[in-house]
Amino acid sequence: MRSRFNEDDWRDEEEVRARPSGAKKSVHCRRKILQPEEGNGTVTELFPNQSAVLLDGAERPSLCGYRMSTLAFGAVNRERSPVCAGDRVRVEAGVIVGRCERRNQLIRPAPNARDPLLHVLAANVDCLVIVAAARDPEFSAGIVDRFLVAASTQKIRQILCVNKMDLLGLGEARPWALYPGVGVALAETCACEGRGTDRLEDLIRGKTAVFCGQSGVGKTSLLRRLLGDESYGRTGAVNERSGMGRHTTSGAVMLPGRDKSSLIDTPGVMNFGLIGLKRGDLLVHFPELHAAAAKCPPNCSHDDDPSCRLLALPRCASYRAIRDSLA
Ligand SMILES: Nc1nc2c(ncn2[C@@H]2O[C@H](COP(=O)(O)OP(=O)(O)OP(=O)(O)O)[C@@H](O)[C@H]2O)c(=O)[nH]1
Ligand SMILES: [Mg+2]
Ligand SMILES: [Zn+2]
Questions:
Q1: CATH number of 7-102
Q2: Is residue 35 pLDDT above 60, yes or no?
Q3: pTM to 2 decimals?
């Protein structure tokens, strides 16, 4: 799938950020991205015209509005909301007056072509837990690899969690078994019975971890286990909106985990935008392919040359599909 965002979206934002302050006096000149040390709280969840912010040292998040005259938003970038889960912000008298520079961010492609705005799902995370299901929905290496590339480009530690292991029969193939060999930590879990979640807990101890993946793979169910909170994400047996016995997460939410970890639950997504990533810069995010390419014939395009060293490697098809989707 082709990402709708091109490099120009990214560059526009960079340019505005880089504009020396005072260069052009306008109504927007008070709007700037703050330095990390200017923040005094972390955004945990978004609501219409408000965000929940956990102020440093506070026990619980509080709802805060926005001071649009000082928030770097709208004229300065093209984001759908002024802040996102995980953002460090400056709060004064219960109002968010500024947002701090992000150390990383995960941007979701816009759901439709008419929406020109960026949707930042989460920011400032230590690890991305890509949740997939062994079955129901079927495991898709293509989706996992896109998430892995997104994490790698943002220098976020990659963890793959394959959930619903109870649905896999004994001796059945595990196409995800290759990932530990390419530097991705792997946990195999069954959120229903709580199997394998100890390993996952070890991997994210003390970290800010964002849980992403397709809808229905079990992200919220895993968080319920990791939080030790049976009620998290449940609205009772029947979903009040759909009338079905199912509850889908509608927006990102950051929750305090055990051992000083912070866990971010997100709605099911198929993809992250690989914004600003050029075709020629993709290979390095597939470390085993990158290493193999050193032995390819000179100027190998990694396409049809039978002596291409990538051909025999399991993630070659994934690499090519992502490469061909990039501008
Ligand atoms: N068999 C089995 N079912 C599971 C497991 N984990 C979760 N489920 C079921 O899968 C369904 C979806 O689980 P959720 O935790 O809501 O999935 P999600 O990834 O949060 O979904 P979205 O919020 O829509 O993105 C629910 O019916 C769960 O009971 C598991 O380990 N095994
Ligand atoms: Mg969910
Ligand atoms: Zn090659």
A1: 2.30.30.140
A2: yes
A3: 0.88
